[in-house]
Amino acid sequence: MKEHFFIYNGEFFRVGMPVISIQNRSFRYGDGLFETMRMCNGKIINGNYHFERLFSGLKILEFKIPPQFSPGYLTDAVNGLLLKNSIFKDAKIRLMVFRGDEGIFDIENNSTNYIIEAFPFFEKIELNEKGIELDIFPDGRKSISRFSNLKSNNYLLSVMAARFAKKNNLDDAIILNDFERACESSIANIFMIKGSEIFTPPLSEGCVAGTVRRWFLEKFELKDYTITEKELSIDGLLHADEIFLTNSLHLLKWVKKFRNKTYTNLKIKEIFKQMILLGIKDS
Question: What residues contact 18, with CB distance under 8 A and at least 6 apart?
Fold first, then answer.
């Protein structure tokens, strides 16, 4: 079996090789950010959005960013890792950025460390034939702050929501914010369709600033449809015509069932077709 590698701070290591200590701040406190990216035909989908979100988050978290640490530098590193692992077409990329060691009050240690992983990704870009089933995650709420929109290494709420979904034979679970409104799912942003209007929660509701979500708000165009940021109540979702989720790996998935409500995907089929025509996979 061919060896598989990852990158840690600019060097290649074989998968399974330990590179961080038990004092690492990301391991201890979730002090850092990550990006999960999909590469299609040698290009990262929404690559600019991913790197803009990452560097904006690093600024908010007050990281000390080296001059050479840039989107171009990281893209070259990703391409080098793909070549090292003999991945020549489609891939899943995971980039994690974190501070080094020491305690929670060690404000001097703002150094930027990073790990890049790359795996072949064979899922076709197509609308899921089987609609997914959702319910509300009951055991936690997402607070709203300037950190809520980040892809933080502290991912506990989403981890537990995903566990809840699996234990209850669901495909995913909706996370509510402190106001009992739909925020996001464990792994995706949420959209609902009512008539000719498409709604998704604004960032002020605490959802992650998803890259596909941003693409929809900035680039999606479909005659007779409008996209608006709006607070989503549970009752609103239950009275929606259709619901779909978006993230960087699967782009869009339609929801067949939420609680006792069953949805169609007639409008979503039209929306997905337009996504492809507008070239999201080439963005």
Answer: none
